[in-house]
Every structure is written in C-alpha cells, then in structure tokens.
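The records we work with from here on pair a chain with its fold. Taken together, the tokens spell out the fold as the letters spell out the chain. To see the layout at work, look at the sequence and tokens printed below.
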Amino acid sequence: MATTRKSRRNPMNAMWGWITRQPPKVKAFLAVISGILALVILRFLVHNHDNLFIAAEGIHAVGIAVLIYKLMKEKTCAGLSLKSQELTAMFLAVRVYCSFVMEYDIHTVLDTATLATTLWVIYMIRFKLKATHVEDLDNFPIHYVVLPCVVLALAIHPSTHHNIVNRILWAFCVYLEAVAVLPQLRVMQNTKIIEPFTAHYVFALGIARFLSCAHWVLQVLDSRGYLLTALGHGLWPSMVLLSEIVQTFILADFCYYYVKSVVGGQLVLRLPSGVV
C-alpha cells in the first residue's frame, strides 16, 4: 500500500519504473521515439540551429571541467581512460588545424580551448597522477579505431575546393570523433562501478553528441537537403551524418543507465553485464 501511494505521488518514478521493466526492443523503440520528439522540440525552440553545435562544444567543455575538478579535488584518475583523452586530443588538434586553414570562426576558439584543457588532463593522468591510473583496465587497442578512420578518410572525404590533404584530415577528425569514447567505455565495462565525476563527464559527452547530431539533422531538414550537396558529392555527406548518429548511439546505453541511477537517487553508477 505504501509503495502504491508513493508511486501515485511520484508519477515520474512510476513511469520510469515501467520503462525499466520493458524488454530491450521496447526500450530501443522508446529511445528512438524520444530522440525524434527531442528533435522536433529543438527545431521549434532553437531558431538558429547552428547554436546547437556551439552548445555541444560548450557541454563538452563542461565535461572536461568536471574532469579537472575530479583530478584536482580527489587527486586520482581512477576510472578515466588515458587513451580516450589522447584520441580526443588527436581529433581536436586536427579539427583546430582544419578550422584555421579552411573556415576560421567561433568553433575554432571553442575547440582550441577544449584542446588545451584536454591536454592538461592528459598531462595529469600521464605524469602527476600516474600511480592512480590502472593501465590493465585501460586496455582498448587504439589502432583498432585510428587505422579504420585513416582508411575511411583516404577513401571517403569532402570534394570541396580545399587542398586534398586538408580534406582528408577533415574527414579523419570526423570519423575519429565518432569513436574516441570507446576506450573510456571499455574502462567502465571493466570496472562496472563508476564514480560520480566520471559518470557526469561521460553523460556530458552523450548530451554533446546528441546536440551535435541534432544540429546536422536539423540543418539538412531546414536546407531541404542542400547542405548535403554543399558538403560535396559521393558518399561523404552521408558519412558525416552517419558519424554523428553512430557517436550518439554509442553513448545512448550508458546515458540510459545514468538517468536511471539519478532517478533512483544513487550516487555511484553500477552497470550490469553487457552494457557499453
């Protein structure tokens, strides 16, 4: 009786409880519907959809700030993947270079700031807090993602008027960004128990990825497909959208368990087997 009264007083908890009891296929369907609904809401609430990309970069920066706070306060990098940070620095460095030589704008400034803070995090993990970094858990072979991204960039890249090398580098950073979080997910998969600051950081990445994906999807819809032709011909425009969608879905499962943990009032996130 007490449980029933509590559910009535907390309809959100009751609804979330119903969602968690559904089979995986139903949860996936609900996730897709929720994503579409979020896109519709963003389309009407945000008039300049380029602001969504700026917001994505800003939230990524907030996630990095959470990491800096963790490293400075707790003096430990346990639960963090050095390899993910290095991959992040790699695609940011390439993107900053491409932005400087191809289209210098506000994104260049934001990416430069995020790159600088990411390099600081790498320095802290590799040198200052090396003793707390468990290398055995951070065991994702990064060549598994770097080499396929190089091959894809060589095969499928923009057909704009820019220098061929710059176009290949542009494609490389787009592909690498989509999978840079995989080593971090491997670390969390190995530990199963994720402390709050790391969970907040990865959740921030998930939100940033969704907003970036929403930016591209809504820009394509608003331009009635013109944006795709402006990016070039062939497979490249489709690969840009696919990369955005892939990096969103890579983090979708984790974000679900993060929200579930927050709704349940848990400070520490525990992942079941098979997640991420």
